[in-house]
Amino acid sequence: MHELYGMGGELMIRFDLDSFEAVTQQPMAAESEREICEIAMSGVSSVFDVPLGALWLYDSDASELQLAASTERADEVFDRPVTYRPGNSLSWEAFEQDDVRTYSELDDERSQYNENSPVSSEIILPLAEYGVINIGSLTPATFDDETVRLARMYATHVQAALQKAEREHDLRVQRDRMEQLIGVVSHDLRNPLHVVEGRLELVRETGDLSHLDDAAEGVARMESLIDDLLTLAKKGYAVEDRTTISLDTIVERTWEMARTADATLKIEGSAPVFGDQNRLKQVFENLFRNAADHAGDDVTVWVGPLVGDGAAERDSANERGEGRVTGFYVADDGPGIPADKLNDVLSVDAFSGSNNGLGLSIVAQITDAHGWDISVSESRAGGARFEVTDGTKPVSPFHSW
Q: In 31, 104, 302, 391, which residue has its Cα 20 to 30 A from 258's Cα atom?
């Protein structure tokens, strides 16, 4: 045990090197942020022989430091969690400037979070972009260079553990999504591949070359899926150059490329749409293909603007509806989607499942990146109806899958 005294002999601060070595090894074996924070705080008293310790993690969405763990004595002293925000505390200053701060007499510091705080002395240790650790005492104390050096090392170990946990979490998410992607892609590729194989076999058996038309459609479907995958690999769901384009124009252009065979398109009015045209084409193309895949080649698809609260729609291209245009819809007369599947087919955080393929997941990701909301319900013909409406979410310049 090493003992340190303040200049006036007012407080003896002790730290235990054996405890330091034991405690700082434990966070690296932890699997979650919470576990790391709890381990770090459980070791404060044994390493530094001070009663107060707390760790705050930075929440980038809220732009604040949120309490993640604290010592038992700190829980007793403070009756409610403390949250640090820009400009409201010494802890935020230390975090923002990435600078270790030591205070022997907090009563003299006017910018502290709570001027009536019972904490008399403390050291504030930034954890880079992850947050801060505060270690303190209820009585005045002086922190000498050796104490500060050891505290820095303590914080460095905690920071490294948080970084490791974050990296491993990201890898797990990436692996899980890749496994889901592989499952969906294998399903989507296998179906048209079977069509090609079957038609080629018929050509060999019968010599009827008309079967090659169906085989060519299967090849085109696989090419389209591969194009989708290449787009994801190169651009993700980027929303780049947003411009205004009329709904009927982009729908007509996309319909020609969607290879929808004998399907019928009915455009029920038009309205300006403000978005990334390349991504919008993906949205419509995938919705058209989804309708053809599930309803058959002779499916009828209706597209039009949503007016007012989204409940009304224009019934024909010549009718001028009342109210503000809030989005657009794509509906079909196919078999529809089972009620118990409606909440799953447009999942943004996970791929939709083997029956829906990659297409609808791409639709969900692109609309989300635009800041739009998308929902699915039953159409007036009993099929599926997709509604895309103005949302309150921010536009994402890059929405990673």
A: 391
